[in-house]
Amino acid sequence: EPEVTQTPSHQVTQMGQEVILRCVPISNHLYFYWYRQILGQKVEFLVSFYNNEISEKSEIFDDQFSVERPDGSNFTLKIRSTKLEDSAMYFCASAPASSGNTIYFGEGSWLTVV
Amino acid sequence: GEDVEQSLFLSVREGDSSVINCTYTDSSSTYLYWYKQEPGAGLQLLTYIFSNMDMKQDQRLTVLLNKKDKHLSLRIADTQTGDSAIYFCAETLTGTASKLTFGTGTRLQVTL
Q: Across the interface, do A98 and B99 touch by the CB < 8 Å criterion?
């Protein structure tokens, strides 16, 4: 069964460093998302991406964050100048079409900022 | 804004039925989902229901939706130890490109 894959599964980075989290969505999907889950808290929406542009973003997704689909298969989340509070599990997700369709999540990338 | 709430913890005995409840605030929810998260793992889509339905059954899983009360439940029949996990309900609203709003998650513990 096709699945969303994410790398790395775990990354430790120093505060102030840049991090890139990578995702390979399911191949025929058109909508891509990043969510995050701070330990013990709710899963929170960060950003949705369609047709090579951001379609919606939350207030969490400030100028520190950016997304890119560089080559038609990968979907990346870049976090510039990481802060301690960026430590979280970051989930990539994809869906074949907009609202009403099933949204599949990857296994997550656990980011620890020290 | 939208808000989704769940009870934090549920303990059941193996073989019994589990019922996990969820309430949401926004009446323009179109789809409601249940996801399962095992320790250290990702979010596994279990099932979803469209807002014009009131029930959906899928093997051991039954989803009930009371749109008037904005209440969603997930019933797991014959609960097994492998069902131990955190269960999240989530909703999407019309016109938000499938942005999901998640509940707090319910930790299901299955005891022998």
A: no
